[in-house]
Design goal:
By secondary structure, this protein is mainly α. It is 76% helix and 2% strand. A two-stranded antiparallel ribbon has the order 1-2. A two-stranded antiparallel sheet has the order 3-4. The longest helix is centred in the middle third of the chain and has 32 residues.
Length: 477
């Protein structure tokens, strides 16, 4: 297929973002800081156009660019989630940036660059494309974490993420070099053809290093060490982007590489995934109990949720991947809604971040209290909210695969995690009122309300998500 035909049919979302970001850089360079509003609006439009291109795509599953890039149902599903996370993250950031004097056109440009890296990562079909996508995503995220450069906490967060991110990149390169050395190819399909059910020890070591690097990117234990500090120190809209879009890409490539490159050594990589899943669930459940800062609480919550998502991957079959896709969709909705509420926590123009600042919210802002309570109930997995179904489908896949111990640990970890989610509800409804929050901007209220309605309505009409997740999982098998 000619190069430009490939771009038009299978690489259109990435092409839109690449061309769009170059146009935004030129506009920002000519207009300076006055161009923030225009660049911000155009960034949302560019991301939205890429999302429409994915939604309208009807091309068959195809591997292009000499097998470096694959366009299939799974990649399109995960790209759609990533783009939604990026769009909402920009919408959530506008008021925060204005109030903190950070109306710089570079911010939406960095989000699009990072999102472009995420899309490339999701469709990577060999080790080189994987590394290029991972680094393009990460380099922009390093800058975004330290975007509030006059804030010591933000600079510290950016430095921590950069140093530990460099370590994970080294692990990725070392693992990829081992895999190439023993398999003689960088292609996922080529690795799968070479690696048999009894692989050389070098392949196992390479797989361990690659999965460790990817676990860092999805902030799964025991490679979570950067997450609480970076989530707390980074600007809150950046934290929302970290917790939503970035995790979609990291989990997607993890699913793809183990399913397509290592189908013959399922028993080996399953042990690694089970260990990471259990460690993440337990750490996320117990470490969050004592957290008073709500951003740190959400950091440990995200670690725990990555553990639950990996339960589906541990099953290693189509039902398990479908469970992962459903889980990530619902997790994205819950996370964006929660960060919309966190960004709405502002008293007399000053942002507050402690759980105690939510005290008595039901008496000072009943609607916000209701929406946030529904989000907490969903994060805890209380039926009939969508969070319950997210956990149900990954646990069901684990049981069907015979992983009964993993399923039991998942249920117990969910019960422990319910404590700190329900504690937030208790503080809002039963404690004496703290100072009332300022009126939230329309964008925050819209995201908070829409996410809550989506979680409440999932059990009534789940078929769009269920059907799309099933089709995405089928394309990998």
């Amino acid at each position: 297929m000619p190069f430009f035909v490939q771009l038009a049919h299978h690489f259109l979302p990435e092409t839109i973002l690449a061309v769009g970001v170059m146009a935004l850089i030129l506009i920002g360079a000519f207009r300076g800081e006055r161009g923030f509003g225009l660049v911000d609006e155009m960034a949302v439009g560019i991301l939205g156009l890429a999302l429409v291109a994915i939604a309208l795509s009807s091309t068959p599953d195809t591997s292009i660019f000499d097998g470096a890039y694959i366009d299939d149902g799974f990649s399109r599903f995960m790209k759609a989630l990533t783009l939604i996370g990026a769009i909402v993250s920009i919408l959530l950031s506008v008021d925060w940036l204005q109030r903190n004097g950070l109306e710089k056109f570079e911010y939406p440009v960095l989000i699009i660059l990072s999102t472009l890296g995420m899309l490339l990562l999701i469709s990577a079909d060999n080790l080189i494309a994987l590394y290029l996508g991972l680094e393009l995503m990460s380099l922009a995220l390093y800058v975004m974490a330290a975007f509030a450069r006059d804030d010591g906490r933000s600079s510290e967060a950016g430095l921590k993420y950069f140093v530990l991110g460099a370590l994970s990149s080294g692990m990725m390169l070392y693992g990829a070099s081992l895999l190439y050395g023993f398999a003689g190819t960088v292609s996922f399909a080529g690795i799968a053809a070479v690696v048999s059910t009894s692989p050389p020890i070098g392949v196992i070591f390479g797989l361990v290093f690659v999965l460790a690097a990817l676990a860092f990117k999805m902030s799964a234990a025991p490679f979570h060490m950067w997450t609480p500090d970076v989530y707390q120190g980074a600007p809150t809209p950046v934290t929302a982007f970290f917790a939503s879009a970035a995790k979609m890409a990291a989990v997607a490539i993890t699913v793809r590489i183990v399913i397509t490159a290592f189908p013959g050594v399922k028993d080996q990589w399953r042990q690694i995934i089970i260990f990471i899943s259990i460690a993440s669930m337990l750490l996320g459940s117990f470490a969050a109990i004592g957290q008073e800062n709500i951003k740190r609480l959400m950091a440990y919550s995200s670690i725990g949720h990555m553990g639950f998502a990996l339960i589906g991957l541990a099953a290693g079959d189509e039902a398990g991947v479908r469970g992962v896709a459903i889980y990530l969709t619902i997790y994205l909705i819950m996370t964006l809604g929660a960060f919309a509420a966190i960004l709405a926590m502002r008293v007399e123009g000053r942002y507050v971040e402690n759980v105690s600042d939510l005290a008595g919210l039901s008496r000072t802002n009943s609607w916000m209290a209701f929406f946030l309570a529904m989000l907490m109930f969903s994060l805890a997995g209380v039926p009939p909210l969508a969070g319950f179904f997210a956990k149900y489908y990954v646990l069901l896949a684990a049981v069907d695969a015979g992983l009964f111990g993993l399923a039991v640990i998942g249920v117990l970890a969910s019960a422990v995690a319910a404590y700190y989610y329900l504690r937030v509800v208790k503080v809002m409804y039963f404690d004496e009122p703290a100072p009332a929050f300022d009126r939230a901007p329309m964008a925050l209220r819209a995201v908070l309300g829409a996410s809550t309605l989506a979680l409440l309505g999932f059990w009534v009409y789940p078929s769009p998500v269920m059907d799309a997740a099933a089709a995405a999982a089928k394309s990998l098998f």
